[in-house]
Amino acid sequence: MRQAAICAIALGMERAHLHIVGGTSRSRAEQARTAFAIGHHAEVYSELDELLERPAGEGIILAAHDTVAGGTAGLVRRLSEAGVSLPLVVTAQGFTINDVVDAITDGALDCLALPLEGNSQAQRLRRVGKAAGPLVALRRRQIEARTRIMQLSRREREVLDCVAAGKSNKLIARDLEISPRTVEIHRANMMSKLHAGHPADAVRIWMDGQFGGQMMSAPARVAPMPCQTFARPASIVHVEAPSNPRAGSAPLLRYA
User: Which phi and psi (to 5°) does residue 203 adopt?
Assistant: First the structure.
């Protein structure tokens, strides 16, 4: 272990805590051995529920693409609901271009093809760890926003939707068929529960709360939200077509 740590320092890496989830027991063991060999710490979990029993406070999650129903989107949703904001890297024996695009769009930070390979994966993981900081901060803010919004009553959430749509109290009252005074009461309660000192704060919390699947209906006539930006896979070298191409089949990605 000391030799592995020295090797990691020589490669300019910080020792990472990897949480390896799903897949076969053989695959998890191979990933753990590779992680230890390049100076990282690894823990293995046969399924996501095992990880969620003792939510990890730091590190990177390496999860098999089929760990839960719903793929990467399902994984991100389950982690978000459990309050886990760690970056997610999806693993599989191979990825098509569509697989990678879908995984990253759904919230994965990167995709790693198995089996992992020593030094090249060390560099990949180092870049993943460097990119993870801003993403973790974003996820924490989004999870906190969802938690606050879930405390609102149905009517308070309707008022929040309308505020996010830029509606005045008078227009909210008309749309919800309640009095302007009732709108003021619901709005004040909503602001208090969100810990929002200004309507702009409430709108920001509403926008953060849209992460990981629509928790609430998007209000009518809301301006388009900025597109979520995700990190690209770290080291895709080139794209190859399958040796026996079939009509409609997607090429495979080869990694450094």
Answer: -65, -40
Distance of CA 88 to the CA centre of its chain: 6
Helix axes 71-81, 118-150, angle to 10 degrees: 60
22 and 125 part of one domain:
yes
Residue 246: both structure tokens together: 């079939």
Instruction: Work out the mean pLDDT of the chain and round it to a whole number.
Output: 77
pTM above 0.70, yes or no: no
Model confidence at 37, pLDDT cuts 50, 70, 90, reads confident
Residue 105 lies in a domain: yes
Residue 206: which of 158, 245, 174, 256 has the closest Cα?
158
The DSSP symbol for 216 reads: S
Residue range 155-173: mean pLDDT, rounded: 95
Q: Rounded distance, CA 159 to CA 247, Å?
A: 51
245/156 same-domain check: no
Alpha carbon distance 69, 48 (integer Å) = 11
Q: How far is it between the farthest Cα atoms of the chain?
A: 72
Tokens of 15: 């020792």
* Whether 13 and 117 share a structural domain: yes
Q: What is the CATH number of the domain that holds 184?
A: 1.10.10.10
Token pair belonging to 101: 């695009």
Count structural domains, the chain: 2
Domain with 163, as residue range(s), is 151-208
